Amino acid sequence: MNWRHKPRKTASHLTRRRRRRRSRTERQRFNRTQMELVRAALLDAGAEEQLWSEALASVVHFINRSRQAGLDMTPLEAVTGRRPSVSRFRG
Asked: Which end is more exposed in the chain, N or C (fewer Cβ atoms within 10 Å of the end residue's Cβ)?
């Protein structure tokens, strides 16, 4: 038997998890929701449209620390294993 042509397997293929592929419409709906939140934040703050990237970063920060429908935890909590602090959020 010729061992040189046998494919090599590494340990990384054993630990990798398959991620759920999102459909195109699901991803577009998620992006549209984020942009609607950005527009609302800019209008509420009375800020200029040039600050949309900072507003998007704030929206993503908020989404990652908010509970999602169908989950008992936040996305950040699912990744890190600990509950995020929301003490700095204003009401």
From this structure: C
